[in-house]
């Protein structure tokens, strides 16, 4: 223990006395550099536990600012932080938690232009992002830079964790994100937590597991989730692990346009008919035959909407008999994702004169009616 300062011994004593971890594990943590992508629901607990454990150098990249709606799950932040850059605030908070470590924040967006230069500075990348373009970008940059990737994601009450691109010795690397998810889902098929919600504690559980896997990799202890996908259902508290393997696919040698890559799989069926906020406003003023359906949750509808019928998406099928067939039906939600699904359901049930509001109520507020409240 003589290699540690009195302050370090006092701080890390409980993990230093673990036989599986010990002084060597702590030394490995102190010498390591970890980049956390995203300082949101996953990133906050990841950052707190990596900092508390004594990871020597931590980087944080996030281009967003703190919002009141973040506070139920992004537990590094308080009301006093609203409006401030997340990466900057998170860096400050974990520096207070452990002044023995070094922290660097990147308060800008991760892109294919900057990813490789940033990733090369770190030993492990931890993905706490919440969208598919970023996930594929992070994965591909890790493959090119030969960096292990600790992946996590959440959906409502569910979460997933795995370790990708781990070093198997020599030039061999384990499977990566594309081996498990070679093709991104249609953007309309996976709503964001802004649209469908998420239980804050679920993000905390998954973030903690990611931190645990990161520490295991750094300290070289235990059996990390390499080529194993851990899946948690926090609502019923069940979990299971599935295995996967490397695929024989085209080597990843460069970064691409990930927005295009993920959006090219969008549903382009003929039923995908949208109208703009301006067009909707014109119809409201001129066409008494339109029938508006807000497919958000009741709590969202009651908080603020425009004159419409509220039928939550999950209740739409059973309520179809209440929707007139002789009117022009316009469905909308917050962003347009849920309403695209609603439109498809209506078309499948024989509705012909139907469209969804592109950009949702958010776009309508930004373009037409700024006084509309939106959750």
| Largest sheet, spatial ordering of strands | 3-2-1-4-5-6-7-8
If you average the pLDDT, what whole number results? 92
Tally of helical segments: 15
> What is the architecture of the largest domain at the second tier of CATH?
3-Layer(aba) Sandwich
Features:
15 helices, five-stranded parallel sheet, 17% strand, 2 domains, eight-stranded mixed sheet, Rossmann fold, 13 strands, alpha/beta, Oxidized Rhodanese, domain 1, 375 residues
Q: Can you walk through the features of this model?
A:
This protein has two domains: 32-263, 3-Layer(aba) Sandwich (Rossmann fold); 274-367, Oxidized Rhodanese, domain 1 (3-Layer(aba) Sandwich). Helix 3 runs parallel beside helix 9. An eight-stranded mixed β-sheet has the order 3-2-1-4-5-6-7-8, sandwiched between helices. A five-stranded parallel β-sheet has the order 9-13-12-10-11. It has 15 helices and 13 strands. Helix 12 links the parallel strand 10 (290-294) and strand 11. The longest helix is centred in the middle third of the chain and has 20 residues, at 200-219. With 375 residues, it is α/β, with parallel strands linked by helices.
Task: Outline the fold blueprint.
Layout: H1 6-16, H2 22-30, E1 33-37, H3 43-53, E2 57-61, H4 86-97, E3 102-106, H5 115-119, E4 124-127, H6 132-145, E5 149-155, E6 158-164, H7 177-180, H8 193-196, H9 200-219, E7 228-233, E8 238-243, H10 258-263, E9 274-275, H11 277-286, E10 290-294, H12 298-303, E11 309-310, H13 316-319, E12 328-332, H14 337-348, E13 354-357, H15 360-367
Parallel strand pairs: 1-2, 1-4, 2-3, 4-5, 9-13, 10-11, 10-12, 12-13
Antiparallel strand pairs: 5-6, 6-7, 7-8
